[in-house]
Amino acid sequence: MSAYKLLLLPGDGIGPEISAEAEKVIAFLSQAGVAKFEIERGLVGGAAYDAHKVAISESDMALAQSADAVLLAAVGGPKWDGVPYNVRPEAGLLRLRKDLALFANLRPAICYPALADASSLKRELVDGLDIMIVRELTGGVYFGEPKEIVTLENGEKRAVDTQVYTTHEIERIGRVAFELARKRRNKVTSSEKANVMRTGYLWREVITALHKREYADVQLEHMLADALGMQLVRWPKQFDVIVTDNLFGDMLSDEAAMLTGSLGMLPSASLGAADANGKRKAMYEPCHGSAPDIAGKGIANPIAMIGSLGMAMRYSFDNAKAADAIDQAIAGVLGKGLRTIDIKGDAPSSISTSQMGDAIVAELKTVLK
Ligand code: IPM
Ligand code: MG
């Protein structure tokens, strides 16, 4: 069995705590002979700033480029509020996405039956929910130029961000969505603001043409992003795959995450284009942030982080056995009523970050027996 080269970037806030739990799972999978890893470690975000005054060092970028996959926990926190814009913690994350060309961000929102009561929506609306949000990750307003604050002649300031998309960028993310839909419930909802934005207009035109040309077997609908935000809380089970741009995808995926009970549950995969051997650069990270308010308390939920490792097993390492086992172990501990505080709901008590990690490893042992 060849070893998977995995770069661990724990980052900031609760990052190191939840990373430690993912490492327990890595250690267990190795020991059980289900997978073999070659682990490197690096710094990103505020942690990198404290050490090197950058959001990620060149040597850690080189490690990311040569890894089979990157597993990143979270970046940012109030401690770095005053640092220069280009070295703020988020700049490290954005550089990884851009330099590794990870244009396709997969954010599955799955509601485990055991957690349906932790959702802010009624059980019947979310029980069994299974949505895949496909967010464009290297374009749009996150990276468009100009992006600046200038001082005008009258002394007033003017800030500009630029929303920009090309045919090629829209097509390649559209393809990812249609391909995923074919393996799921065969439906894609494409979302933009074609009624207001030129980028939205082009997005709709390109997705429509791509669908007609190559994916007519998949059901396609277009939905304006504001309406989609509304439909997500009205009747989320109408969706299968949602494909949208970088900014709308950022917002809608937080909304979808919350439907599942907690932001602490959702993993994500960010993938690049396949090379000649079918390999893709990839980074896996929880959808949640660094939660500085609870950092260091040992109460963060490690499930999104461990689930992200599971996505790495599936999408980068083609190890469905390990990926399925991780998913089953997570469902198993939840089924047994084990809860971190964010998903506690009406449960009588909650467990710590490391207890949750241990419980998942224990469950893995049974699942893999
Ligand atoms: C996310 C986060 C990031 C984003 C931040 C931390 C830069 O919110 O991954 O959803 O806006 O993309
Ligand atoms: Mg976000």
UniProtKB/TrEMBL annotation:
- Cellular compartments annotated: Cytoplasm
> What one GO molecular function would you report for this record?
3-isopropylmalate dehydrogenase activity
Any one annotated GO CC term: cytosol
> Where is the major localization of this protein?
cytoplasm
- CC cofactor: Mg(2+); Mn(2+)
Q: Where does NAD(+) bind?
A: 77-90, 289-301
Enzyme Commission (EC) number: 1.1.1.85
Q: Does the keyword Amino-acid biosynthesis apply?
A: yes
Q: At which positions is substrate bound?
A: R97, R107, R135, D226
Asked if the record carries the keyword Iron, the reply is no
Q: Which residues bind Mg(2+)?
A: D226, D250, D254
Q: Outline the extent of the Isopropylmalate dehydrogenase-like domain.
A: 5-360
Task: Return the annotated site residues (Important for catalysis).
Answer: Y142, K193
Which keywords describe this protein according to UniProt?
Amino-acid biosynthesis, Branched-chain amino acid biosynthesis, Cytoplasm, Leucine biosynthesis, Magnesium, Manganese, Metal-binding, NAD, Oxidoreductase
Recorded hits in SUPFAM superfamilies, A to Z, give: Isocitrate/Isopropylmalate dehydrogenase-like
Q: Which Pfam families match?
A: Iso_dh
Pathway entry: Amino-acid biosynthesis; L-leucine biosynthesis; L-leucine from 3-methyl-2-oxobutanoate: step 3/4
Job description of the protein: Catalyzes the oxidation of 3-carboxy-2-hydroxy-4-methylpentanoate (3-isopropylmalate) to 3-carboxy-4-methyl-2-oxopentanoate. The product decarboxylates to 4-methyl-2 oxopentanoate.
Family the UniProt entry places it in: Belongs to the isocitrate and isopropylmalate dehydrogenases family. LeuB type 1 subfamily.
How does this chain assemble? Homodimer.
Q: What is this protein called?
A: 3-isopropylmalate dehydrogenase
Organism the protein comes from? Methylocystis echinoides
